[in-house]
Write a structure and sequence with these properties.
Layout lengths: L36 H11 L9 E5 L3 H6 L4 E6 L14 H25 L7 H12 L1
Antiparallel strand pairs: 1-2
Amino acid sequence: KFDFKNIPNSGEKIVIHTQGNHSKGTRFENANHLINSANQRIFGQFLKGLDGFEYGRFDVKCKTIEDLETFENLNVIEFNGIAAEPTIIYDSRVGYIGALKIFKSHWKRLEDLSNFNKSRSYKSLSTSKIFKKILKEYL
């Protein structure tokens, strides 16, 4: 809990919140350049245990880039499935047009995955069954 009676000294850093959150002023940055074969292999091993997983995003937190490389001190904050937006759109360097391009690419990948599943005779749920599942989950 933040102490509003305490006035920080000039240049002093105060932790307002420990979790990334838009409403708490967290700055989001695209770190796709940190993706490499080592961390893809480790996340891939983890995902093998998730039956039916095809697409998603991990939100992770670590103290250093080296921790991301070695998976030491790495915390998975969230694991988001197909409905999650690509969070790189929140990087201030992306801009509005860039975000639209990212969404277009994101939805194209989902369309390709859907078409691939249809080609394998994957049986999808009807719209009414999807809504029933949503209502059951959230109401």
